[in-house]
Design goal:
249 residues; 67% helix; mainly alpha
Length: 249
């Protein structure tokens, strides 16, 4: 491809991104679950893994690791994932959020001792999470079918693609070398264990006390995700939203 062709292609892509950013993305309503039979099987496997592995390990972790250390590990993990949000902010042309998150990352990485502490939130620099599934939504891609993914849990076709891209989207993954780079996945696993322990009772009520845990999980995920993508504009059951936030995020 010639230099002029590359320039034209780049300009065309930039125009498409600008047009998609100017448009108001439509948030899907209703439930589209054509793979329910296989989704339910995956859901049951995920429940078995949670019951036999994740829940007992999370309990031991929560009981034996002091809360301040668990909070510090969670802060550290969240700080390491923030550059991914910044990249998605830029892809969505949300430059205000990109600057906000960049300043937060700088403050927490320096004053907050690599993110173990969270001085950013105390001065109004709360995290503004973003992911590639949200980027695809802004670009106009449809939600697609509901999916339950092994290990990752509830998702949609669009968000499943987003999760895959997000695995490679964090700039720190290309800058930090081994063995320091292991801090990202290790802290992420420990953070998830901490969340499983912290919100254990709420999550257990959804997974093990619901009449239909699959339908309940599906509803909570779709309600929360659509509420998030609409910027809080789409109607949402506030109680369901709070349950999902405390159980799955």
């Amino acid at each position: 491809m010639s230099q002029s062709s590359r320039i034209k292609t780049g300009l065309a892509i930039a125009c498409l991104v600008l047009l998609s950013a100017c448009a108001t993305p439509e948030v899907t309503s209703g439930i589209y679950d054509p793979y329910e039979e296989s989704n339910r099987k995956t859901h049951e496997r995920n429940r078995k893994v949670d019951r036999n592995v994740l829940r007992p390990v999370a309990y031991e972790y929560g009981q034996n690791v002091p809360e301040p250390i668990r909070i510090g590990i969670g802060n550290f993990s969240d700080n390491l994932s923030l550059p991914k949000s910044i990249v998605n902010d830029i892809l969505q042309l949300q430059l205000d959020d990109a600057i906000h998150n960049s300043v937060r990352f700088l403050v927490n990485t320096t004053i907050g001792l690599a993110g173990v502490l969270d001085p950013g939130s105390k001065i109004g620099l709360e995290a503004r999470d973003s992911d590639f599934g949200q980027t695809l939504h802004v670009w106009g891609f449809n939600e697609g079918a509901y999916l339950e993914l092994p290990a990752f849990g509830p998702s949609t076709t669009r968000d499943a693609v987003g999760k895959g891209v997000d695995l490679f989207l964090n700039p720190l993954g290309y800058v930090v070398r081994k063995p320091e780079s292991y801090a990202m996945p290790v802290s992420g696993v420990l953070n998830r264990l901490g969340d499983r322990y912290r919100f254990g009772a709420m999550l257990d009520s959804v997974l093990y006390e619901s009449a239909d845990s699959y339908a309940q999980t599906r509803l909570l995920y779709l309600e929360n995700r659509r509420f998030q993508l609409s910027g809080g504009l789409q109607q949402n059951d506030e109680d369901l939203y709070e349950i999902y936030e405390e159980s799955y995020e």
